[in-house]
Amino acid sequence: MDQLLAKILQAHGGSDRYARFSQIRATIVTGGGLWAIKGVPQDPDPREMTVRLHEEWASVRPFGAPDQRTAFTPGRVAIERTDGTVVAERPDPRASFAGHELATPWDGLQRAYFNGYAMWTYLTTPFLLAMPGVTVTPLPDLHENGEQWHGLRAAFPEDIASHSREQEFWFGDDLLLRRHDYRVDVAGGFPAVQYVHHYIEAQGLRMPSKRRAYRCGDDGRPLPDELMVAIDISDLHYS
Fold first, then answer.
1. Which of 48, 58, 88, 210 is deepest in the core (most CB within 10 A)?
2. What is the sign of the dihedral through the CA atoms of 96, 102, 105 and 107?
3. 3 CB-near residues (< 8 Å, 6+ apart)
4. Whether pLDDT at 158 is above 70
5. Are 152 and 139 spatial neighbours (Cβ–Cβ below 8 Å)?
């Protein structure tokens, strides 16, 4: 394992502690401008998000109706009732985004797919960087907000669904995540810069409770008036 990555995992609570658990449940509140662009307006109500830590699976509830939830894996996404009845489903959901641009509307299953892979990515970071098939390489330090941040570029295998195959993660001198850069391939590949802060701890593991993702310009700098996604995370519980 990359030495920097090993230190980063330890700063977030450690691989041994993380390995004791199989899933995490959290309360999320979501906002930002992306949802209106995609024709799927987002209300500010809290929702329960559950993801598995060592395989890519996620579910959020309620979704679309009080008695509905999602069921996401890279190869299938579904909207279900809480009794397990399938309301709608789509195999190979990534293929449904072919030809999409930023303003191309999403349907409910596409929204569920985006939520599933994005929240799985966020709630397993940085430990997903040590998963089989993920390769990391160091980046030159980045100076931002009066700090020096240490970077890793991650290349994800095809069997992991995420924003883009290559993403960049930046960590402060305390080795906690500060910034996450990627392209949103399911929305025309627009570049995004996501800042994370306000760390919270649950059962010895540390995670940012606030995430703010901005569209960025050709120079790689965030556009402050284009907040695409905002996520507040609370009530973390590993099991």
1. 58
2. positive
3. none
4. yes
5. yes
Q: DSSP per residue over the chain, as a string?
A: --HHHHHHHHHTT-HHHHHT-SEEEEEEEEESSHHHHTT-------EEEEEESSS--EEEES-SSTTEEEEEETTEEEEEETTS-EEEEEESGGGGGTT--TT----HHHHHHHHHHHHHHHHHTTGGGGSTT-EEEEEEEEEETTEEEEEEEEE--TTS--S-SEEEEEE-TT--EEEEEEEEGGGTTEEEEEEEEEEEEETTEEEEEEEEEEEE-TTS-EEEEEEEEEEEEEEEEE-
Q: Distances in Å between the alpha carbon of 125 and those of 62, 84, 133, 206, 224?
A: 24, 29, 15, 10, 24
Question: Could you give the domains of the chain?
Answer: 3-238 (2.50.20.10)
pLDDT in tens, 93-110: 999 999 999 999 999 999
**Overall pTM surpassing 0.85 (yes/no):** yes
Tokens 């540390």 sit on residue: 206
